[in-house]
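User:
Note these tokens:
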Amino acid sequence: MKAIVVSNHGGPDVLEWRDHEAGAPGAGQVRIRHEAVGLNFIDVYFRTGLYAAPNGLPLVPGNEGAGVVVALGEGVSDLKEGDRVAYAGPIGAYAQERVIAADQLVKVPDAIDLDTAAGMMLKGMTAEYLLRRTHRVEAGDTILFHAAAGGVGLIAGQWAKALGATVIGTVGSEEKAELARANGYDHVINYRTEDFVARVKDITGGKGVDVVYDSVGKDTFPGSLDCLRPRGLWASFGQSSGPIEPFNIGILAQKGSLFATRPTLFVYNARRADLEQSAAALFEVVANGTVRIGINQHYPLSDAARAHTDLEGRKTTGVTVLKP
């Protein structure tokens, strides 16, 4: 079998396509053959060393994939060979086959193909926990979502609109603005040509939004705080532009007794019951057409370096799938 292996932290060039044995499944594990692997910005963080890999180097990146069960370890009773499964979480997805704990997998409904499942699990369950658990979006809410044309942003825009929210998004180009408008956003702000704080104040009549969902980090702080109504919530769930510098927590008082949180999918879905609920909610909105998953880019898994280069260069939109 082959996989993408990172032996040293660095740029996309450290992603090496080479022989890699997946191994036999142990107790409570299964071996799966990947049909597709999802590309996410967290893959860049592990590649560069911004996030420490659980078992150090060398590492096989990737936190999201879908495929078919090909072997069962001892004690696995709720899966069988041939089952279509998907996951988001355990690192090691950039491989033709892998061994994974059975309790990290969910079965994929027949109505959803495996490319779609591979590209939506991490992004879609992230949208689920942000919109339904970090701040439970209700009809009448006004929200701001940075990186609206990204994978999470396009899913969140459709989902939040279906929940009855007024949805504001930021993007970096007019092309991305058009994409966001087609995916639920009522108002789209091009941060390269507009002051997003001023535009949010204008859109909301000076009131501010109920919640800001921010995966950008350095470039949108502290502006995100200035977009919030008093006692609003800033949910910082990523840092694609770089980490936020340490700040005095007193700024939250100064700007309106604000709430702040730094959530992660892996904590929100750490319990099996939460994982099942999150996946079920995602499968439901995709299967019934509330949320459309647009796979806008395909790359061979062996060409992961080019995919990372395009991702970091902000040349990708929506969902990107790597094919083993």
